[in-house]
Amino acid sequence: MTKETLEKINGFTRRPFSEDEVYAFSVILCDNDIDRDCERFSDEALEAICRTFIGRTGISDHQPSASNQTARIFDTELVTDSSRQTKYGAPYKCVKASAYMIRTDENRDLIAEIDGGIKKEVSISCSASKRICSVCGCDKTVNTCGHVKGKKYGGKLCHIILDDVTDAYEWSFVAVPAQVNAGVTKHYSSGSMESQPVCSDIVEADNELRKDIRRLAYFIGGKTAADIVALTAGAMNTGQLVKLKRSLEDRRSRSGPVVQLMPENTDEDGPELFAMR
C-alpha cells in the first residue's frame, strides 16, 4: 500500500490508521456496454458515478443497516480500454473503485473470501433521471417514441442510454451478476419494461436471466426449489423474468423461503432506481 493510498483512506477515518490496520481492494462498479435489459450508462453518467460514489458505504445484499456496513469507497477511476469495443462499437469504459475496510476479527473471513475470489461481484444503487432512446434521442422518461429496445433498426440494436445520474446510495456484495462485462447486476424498475420482439439478443438475455433465477432459487430453497422455479421461468417473457428475479433477490436478502413463484405485477413510475451488480 502506498503512502498516497493510506492518506486517502485516512481522509475518511477519525484517527490515522496504519497500513497493518486496514485492508484495501478494487471493484468494478459498472460500465458503458449494453446490458441484458438493452440499457447502458452514458459516458457522462459514468463520470457522475465516479464523483458521487467516493465515500459511499459498502454493505451486503442491499440490506441498509449500520451493522451490515463492511467497507467504504475512498477513490474511483474511469478506465478506458481502447483494445475492447462495446456492442455498439465504442471503446469500452468502466468505473473502477478502490475500497477499504478495517481489519477486525469479525471481517477476517470476508477478507479471505475477497482474496480468494469468492466475494468479487458487487452491485451499486443509484438514480438516473434520463432514459434516452439510442435511435432517435427521445428521453423516454418524458416522451414516448416508436422505437423498441431489443429490436434492430438499420442493423443496430435499439437500447436505452441511462443519463443524468442524480444520486448515489450504496454498493453491495452480491451473489449473482447480470451485467456481464462489469460483473454487476441491476434491479429493474417494473414500470420501465417495454414490449420487446423475439430476436437473438433478447433470447440470449432471457436465457441468462433464467440461469440467474435458477441459481437464486437454489440459494434460497435448494435443488427442489430451483427445479420448480426453472420450470415456471421457462414460459415467461423478459418482463416477467426480470420481475421474478427481483422478487427472488428480495426474498434472498431477507433470508426467507420462496413462497410466491410469480412476482407481483406493479406499475411504478418515476426515475429509474438501480442496484447494479
Keyword list:
277 residues, alpha+beta, 10 strands, 27% helix, globular
Oligomer: single chain
Structure classification? alpha+beta
Task: State the helical fraction.
Answer: 25-40%
Shape: globular
Structure annotation, total helices = 5
Low-pLDDT sequence parts: 177-199, 256-277
- Total beta-strand segments: 10
Q: Main β-sheet: number of strands, strand sense, barrel status?
A: 8 strands, mixed
Distance between the termini: 27 Å
Task: Tally the structural domains.
Answer: 1
Radius of gyration: 19 Å
Helix and strand run: HEEHEEEHEEEEHHE
Task: Give the integer mean of the pLDDT values.
Answer: 77
Strand content: 25-35%
Summarize the structure.
The protein is an alpha+beta fold.
Walk me through the structure.
27% of the residues lie in helices and 29% in strands. The chain has 277 residues and is α+β, with helices and mostly antiparallel strands. It has one domain (3-197, 268-276). The strands form two sheets. Strands 1, 2, 3, 4, 5, 6, 9 and 10 form an eight-stranded mixed β-sheet that branches. It has a two-stranded antiparallel sheet with strand order 7-8. α4 (200-233) crosses α5. The longest helix is centred in the last third of the chain and has 34 residues, at 200-233.
What's the topology here?
Layout: H1 3-10, E1 22-31, E2 39-41, H2 43-52, E3 57-60, E4 71-85, E5 91-102, H3 108-115, E6 122-133, E7 152-153, E8 156-157, E9 160-173, H4 200-233, H5 238-253, E10 272-276
Parallel strand pairs: 2-9, 3-9
Antiparallel strand pairs: 1-5, 3-4, 4-5, 6-9, 6-10, 7-8
